[in-house]
Amino acid sequence: MSDMNAFRDAVTAWAAGGSGDRARELAGRLSVRTVVLLEGFSDAAAVGALAARDRRDLAAEGVCVLPMGGAMNVGRFSALLGPRGLGLRLTGLCDEGELGYYERGWQRAGAGGDGVFVCAADLEDELIRALGVERVTELVREQGDFRSLRTFLRQPAQRGRDAGQQLRRFLGTKKGRKIHYGRVLVEALGEARAPAPLDGLLAAL
User: Fold this and answer.
1) pTM, whole model, 2 decimals?
2) Is pLDDT of 34 > 80?
């Protein structure tokens, strides 16, 4: 896993304008075959948790899960890694509102039009709907965040939003919280089927 993390870091540095030599060397040595391009670390935490639940070692399978720091970066990463770059297979998970970035990135990279799995709002929304508001609220309590949730719900901006929307907003109110709950919510699924976009992504790897 540490070697795949090194590949991910080398690609990130390359995308930021550095040399691609290290990424090329690691891609060959690790037999990387597929890169999963994700908006951020919370999505990566969810993908990692689901893979662990299914007893899969994605790094050993030649799969790199790569958070890009925003969907607008997908064009740069796909150009470096796809058929016109390192020649790796591209796949990804995005929100419906970000699909255009992925489609344009895939097209410029010569990657065709498939391999992107789309969440209706975002992955947190998919997981909240899969688990139900009551269960997610229980998880927030178990994680020691219930007092913060109650304070958040008293804010005037939350009036008129349904409970699912409120929870989704709450998960994004503190740095690191979405990453933490990306793992927690997936683990809470148990053996139940994951939301369709996440389930489809893992099945395609």
Assistant:
1) 0.93
2) yes
